[in-house]
Write a structure and sequence with these properties.
Helices cover 38% and strands 18% of the residues. It is α/β, with parallel strands linked by helices and 264 residues long. The structure holds zinc ion. The site of zinc ion (ZN) has 4 residues, from loops.
Amino acid sequence: MIKKCLYITLLLLVLILSGCANGTKKTAVTAEKTLPEPVPQKVTTVQLMKDTPYATPAFIYESANPGPAVMVVGGVHGNEPAGAQAAKKFCDVKLIKGTLIVIPRANETALQANIRTLPEVGDLNRAYPGKASGTPSQQLTYGIVQLMKQYKVAMVLDLHEGYAFNAENQKSLGESILPGKDDVSSLLAMDAMEYVNKDITEDKKKFNVLANPIAGSTAYYANTILKVPAFTIETSDKQPIEDRVKYSFTIAKFLVASTGIIAK
Ligand SMILES: [Zn+2]
């Protein structure tokens, strides 16, 4: 009887101890779960041309993990809405590291009017490096340049549209990538072209890699003055808007992901 009592007591002790052990384990798991989360990405909105009819936001997403800064610009020409919409899609992309600066509607008044640009604004894509007190396009580009310099951008993309398919009509830049003059830009553009063309069956709609961005443009400035890889991406407005946005975003995302700040 005493032996039986001792045995039961021992069994109870073992059960209690194992329960404690489990309890300890549970506490450890709970403690692990309550460890501080990684700092979520910080978003800062900078108003370019603040308090003017040309005001437009630059969204700056900064990861807690250090890494390069990339700028994506859209809506430089108001009759090229796919570039603006594709750039806007980057506002929903999660950063792995570094900084992403998104200016989706660079030429706000022109986008609203659905024309290339308003005469009083001028062509943003010929206005770089801009001026602190010049025409609206010079002031806008000056503001964009200040952000490029402040965040020491490592890559710049500018999303546009052409009126035809370049493969069919070489006068149009539609469905092309214009890389900066450096080797990195050229090689990345070739890779991005191969990547997007896998999804395009009709030859005339396939993307080409053309010569360098035009003088005075966003990508030209970033590449020749700041010496960073830069690209002008052109879709064709012969395509439905959904396809233009899809291809513009596909190419841009491929290029941004090459820096490691977002997933492919
Ligand atoms: Zn354009």
